[in-house]
Amino acid sequence: MKRLFSTAFFLFWCALSFAQDQPQTQLPRIKLQLGMYQIDTQVAQTPEQRSIGLMYRSDMPLHEGMLFVFEQASVQCFWMKNTLLPLTAAFVADDGTIVNLADMKPQTADSHCSLKPVRFVLEMHQGWFARKGFKAGSRLVGVPIKAS
After folding, report:
1. Which of 15, 40, 68, 131 is the most buried (most CB within 10 A)?
2. How far apart (Å, rounded) are the C-alpha atoms in residues 48 and 17?
């Protein structure tokens, strides 16, 4: 009986590990507007969705990003474990104003944090915001104001 339990646990752990190594590409989507640019955004709003984020993605269209939605405003910190794409994180206030930007290198455990409490973080290809001329103080339109 103990061997059966051990085997079942091992198989469950293997299946769970395999499932976690897959990119999530079927999250709900919303359109955000930043200046004249429209961003097709996947929305990560549950703890599990937020913890996986853009991990394991080997590609992403240039006009797409991922919006992380948190229940409460707090200092949000991100890292790039298992993330293959270089990204820029925009830490966003409830009114859509970008508080600060952080360029993040793939496959690192460096911590990148908001300068003040926020509920939203938008990840885009690294350099996207700079190439379009956006910085802290720029304003996103379409950010879902109410907590999920």
Report:
1. 68
2. 14
Q: Give the separation between CA 131 and CA 76, rounded to whole angstroms.
A: 24
The pair of three-digit structure tokens given for residue 94, joined into one six-digit string: 């409830």
Residue 70 tokens read as: 């948190």
C-alpha to C-alpha distances, 57 to 10, 64, 120, nearest whole angstrom: 27, 12, 21
- 34-70: pLDDT as tens digits: 999 999 999 999 999 999 999 999 999 999 999 999 9
**pTM above threshold 0.70:** yes
100 touches 134 (CB < 8 A): no
Please tell me the distance from the alpha carbon of residue 119 to that of residue 99, in angstroms, as a whole number: 11
Exposure pattern of 90-123 as b/e (b: 16+ CB <10 Å)? bbbbeebbbbbbbebeeeeeeebebeeebbbbbb
Distance in angstroms (rounded) separating the CA atoms of residues 125 and 79: 15
pLDDT in tens, 76-92: 999 999 999 999 999 99
Q: What residues does 39 pair with on adjacent strands?
A: 32
